[in-house]
Amino acid sequence: MKPFDYYRAADLTEAAATHQPGSVFIAGGTNLVDLMKLQVMTPDRVIDIARLGLDRIEDDGDGLRIGALVSNSDLAADPRVRKRWPVLSRALLAGASGQLRNKATTGGNLLQRTRCPYFQDLATPCNKRTPGSGCAAMGGELRNHAVLGTSAHCLALNPGDMAVALRALDAVVEFRDAQGIAHAHPIAGFHLPPGTTPDVETVLPPGALITSVALPAPKGDRQIYRKVRDRASYAFALVSVAAVLRLERGRIVHAALAFGGLGTVPWRDPAVDALLTGEAPSMVLFDKAADLLLHPAQPREGTAFKLPLTRRLLRAVLEEATQ
Ligand code: SF4
């Protein structure tokens, strides 16, 4: 590992003042430390933010405000979350392992990096790791890669589970910029597709620090998170679906569907939600939703299996959610 300076910040002001180009913030470190050991990330300065007091889940009107340092385990186990936002609890419990969830934080989870194997291999070109160097995945082995939101420069998958549920729940990411000014950004658009700059992964400006995630009151009481993966635990999604629905008199009056394992960002297509809204559930309708969702997909050898898998998973989730 490359040597680095270590600071422990006592508060947000100190964290911001200590940050300089080449610095990173560390909380749980479950992804960052691995990447530092591989020398994929080589910060000059590591600023520990674990003691900033951002580890509370507070009632916020009819919603919740989740501190950025709340662990994935604590968030999944919170009785309020389990009762009113079960899709979030289930998505969290579907991610990583118990040990990792105990350390991983809400803010860090949103910023986890892709697990594209070429990104982690310094011997291969990668536009995300070294801008302009090329993309080894394009002619390489593909499986855990994206089919939606890709570009000619990168097709790395966003590996999140929590973020997929947060997209279906219309969460808002709250952060402080390097000047200490507070901002709030909807989770929609928070993660950026690769375009021509795969190294820029979120809207966060340099030196910004996520402080909390605001969770509005749930718009649907029928919530499901289902994840298909190679192993029963401790594996990333081949495809996952977060569904939040509400039905009245046999019709879908609210539909929010978000997907993991498919996109370069946690994926949600408003047109799919709109197609379902106002309709009576049927297999014909669910197939139309799958057609619409997958229409822009760009599968390659190695990822083409995701399309029929997504269709079957979506049908099953919608059938269960509308029973
Ligand atoms: Fe790098 Fe993206 Fe290509 Fe993977 S897909 S090698 S992360 S540029």
Tell me how many strands there are: 11
User: How would you state the average pLDDT, rounded?
Assistant: 97
Derived from helix and strand composition plus strand pairing, the structural class reads alpha+beta
Q: Give the full name of the CATH homologous superfamily of the domain at 222-321.
A: CO dehydrogenase flavoprotein, C-terminal domain
Integer-rounded radius of gyration: 19 Å
The biggest beta sheet reads: 5 strands, antiparallel
Indicate the CATH topology of the domain at 222-321: Enolase-like, domain 1
Name of the CATH class of the domain at 222-321: Alpha Beta
What is the end-to-end distance?
A: 53 Å
Order of helices and strands: EHEHEEEHHHHHHEEEEEEHHH
Please report which band the strand proportion falls in: under 5%, 5-15%, 15-25%, 25-35%, 35-45% or over 45%: 15-25%
**Order of strands side by side in the largest beta sheet?**
4-5-8-6-7
The CATH level-2 architecture of the domain at 222-321 is identified as 2-Layer Sandwich
Give a list of the ligands: iron/sulfur cluster
Low-pLDDT residue spans: none
Helix content: 25-40%
Short description:
It contains eleven helices and eleven strands.
Question: What's the layout of helices and strands?
Answer:
Layout: E1 5-8, H1 12-18, E2 23-26, H2 32-37, E3 45-48, E4 57-60, E5 63-67, H3 72-77, H4 79-84, H5 86-93, H6 98-103, H7 106-110, H8 162-168, E6 172-176, E7 182-186, E8 209-215, E9 222-228, E10 239-248, E11 251-260, H9 270-276, H10 283-294, H11 306-321
Parallel strand pairs: 1-3, 2-3
Antiparallel strand pairs: 4-5, 5-8, 6-7, 6-8, 9-10, 10-11
Helix pairs in contact: 5-8, 9-10, 10-11
